[in-house]
Specification:
Helix content is 80%, strand content 0%. It is mainly alpha-helical. Mean pLDDT is 84; it is low at 1-10 and 437-444. It has one domain (13-216, 231-428): Up-down Bundle (Growth Hormone, Chain: A), CATH 1.20.1250.
Length: 444
């Protein structure tokens, strides 16, 4: 055990709201960087960095660089989780924001394949790794900072503010992407204009940094420090929660992640290349769905605080399963009206489970090891769900030429997550935090 200097943390309502707002703004900026890459991977990077490949192979290669960021996220989560449990949540979140912002800005400066050959995709992948590493420390840390400042009866609501950063970042990325595209001459955006949204990250990171520098440390971490409970190896202690509960918690989040990345990222490539939809139309559909997603999170977290999240999460999981059966077939009709309805349905249903999954995961671990444990589950779940979803979906479409295989894949994932959630909620009381046995007491 080791300690760090105690931190004085105000607990008044104004301070709590300031922290929640700061976490929302910070996560929005980080997800802007992450989703901007996803949009560019779906629409631009195959031509800029993989021109020697066929269109289908180039798209698959571009989505592979997108997935690299997910592979780096667990490592980032482990590193940031370790230091977040040892030196505090606030400082680690500042570092993660800087890493994301700098990497995104540099992506806007990477020469394309025609200029430097194979070094172009190599540099792209390296910067994507930095992005993923930085984001690996963001999701858990922001959720904990907000939730640990919350009053006892509003833990889900406060934990939901960082979750709102996901759709907000997506909307911001798409708005900047579409606006830049609309203001440029024909062909100029694909040639070099796509760099402007990435370079804009430099401005956003300055804004986010100023905001986070004025945020107070988490009361829970301050309490851990004052009681000399800082763990030397927090991840090791977090694993004492047990493989069974951690596996079930991991399983319940995979469906939401996979479905979200299919409708946010994969459909942009599939819809333009296979179904001949206009690029701006699809980005607009995704953006409107994300606005609904963003706006409904406070409603669902409020429901969870008043009535419990068990029934809400299970009901949302069933709704997600049902909508996955019709989503891609509706796009496949070629009807703009049905396509808009399909995306609006995603905007309504996805936030039901997404809004509380951060709180569910965080409540699995006690405060001294919460950052490490939460980061581990979040980032592994992100790989198994979101990171692989665009690649698997593209491969299935490439193999069959249709979307039936993707629909079956999403249904299987939804059934798996629903089963994990049902078993977990049957075994664990609502919002129960498992105390982690201390190694010395266990030895005794």
């Amino acid at each position: 055990m080791s300690t760090t200097p105690s931190v004085s943390v105000p607990s008044d309502r104004r301070a709590r709201r300031r922290v929640a707002s700061a976490m929302l703004i910070g996560t929005t900026l980080e997800w802007y960087d992450f989703f901007l890459y996803g949009t560019a991977a779906a629409l631009i990077f195959n031509k800029q960095f993989f021109p020697a490949l066929s269109p289908a192979a180039g798209t698959l290669a571009a989505f592979s660089t997108f997935a690299v960021g997910f592979i780096a996220r667990p490592l980032g989560g482990l590193v940031f989780g370790h230091f977040g449990d040892r030196i505090g949540r606030r400082n680690t979140l500042i570092v993660s924001l800087l890493m994301m912002g700098i990497a995104s800005t540099l992506i806007g400066l990477v020469p394309n394949y025609a200029s430097i050959g194979v070094w172009a995709p190599v540099l792209l992948v390296l910067l994507r790794v930095v992005q993923g590493f930085g984001l690996g420390g963001e999701g858990a840390g922001a959720t904990l900072m907000s939730m640990e400042h919350a009053p006892a009866d509003k833990r889900n609501l406060y934990a939901g503010f960082p979750q709102m950063g996901t759709p907000a970042g997506l909307v911001l990325a798409n708005v900047v992407f579409l606006t830049t595209n609309a203001l440029m001459p024909s062909g100029a955006f694909d040639a070099w204009g796509w760099r402007i949204p990435f370079l804009f990250s430099a401005v956003l990171v300055v804004v986010g940094l100023v905001i986070r520098l004025h945020v107070e440390e988490s009361p829970s971490f301050s309490n851990v420090v004052s009681h000399q409970r800082v763990e030397t190896f927090p991840l090791r202690e977090a694993l004492r929660v047990g493989v069974g509960r951690m596996t079930l918690t991991l399983g319940l989040m995979i469906a939401n992640s996979a479905v979200a990345y299919v409708f946010m990222v994969f459909t942009l490539s599939y819809g333009t290349k296979q179904l001949d939809y206009d690029r701006s139309f699809l980005i607009g559909c995704v953006s409107v769905a994300a606005v609904i997603w963003f706006a409904t999170i406070p409603f669902w977290t409020g429901v969870a605080d008043r009535s419990g999240r068990r029934t809400m999460f299970l009901g949302g999981s069933v709704a997600l399963l049902i909508w996955c059966l019709v989503f891609l077939p509706m796009l496949g009709t070629g009807s703009s009206v049905l396509t808009v309805i399909a995306f609006l349905g995603m905007g309504v249903i996805v936030p039901v489970t997404h809004s509380v999954q951060g709180a569910i995961i965080a409540d699995t671990f006690p405060a001294p090891v919460r950052y490490s444990g939460t980061s581990l589950i979040l980032q592994i779940g992100a790989i198994l769900g979101g990171g692989l979803a665009p690649i698997i979906s593209s491969a299935l479409v490439g193999e069959s030429g249709g979307s039936a295989g993707v629909t079956i894949y999403l249904v299987i994932v939804c059934v798996l997550s629903l089963a994990c959630a049902a078993v977990l909620f049957a075994r664990v009381p609502e919002e129960n935090v498992v105390p982690v046995p201390r190694a010395d007491s266990a030895a005794a």
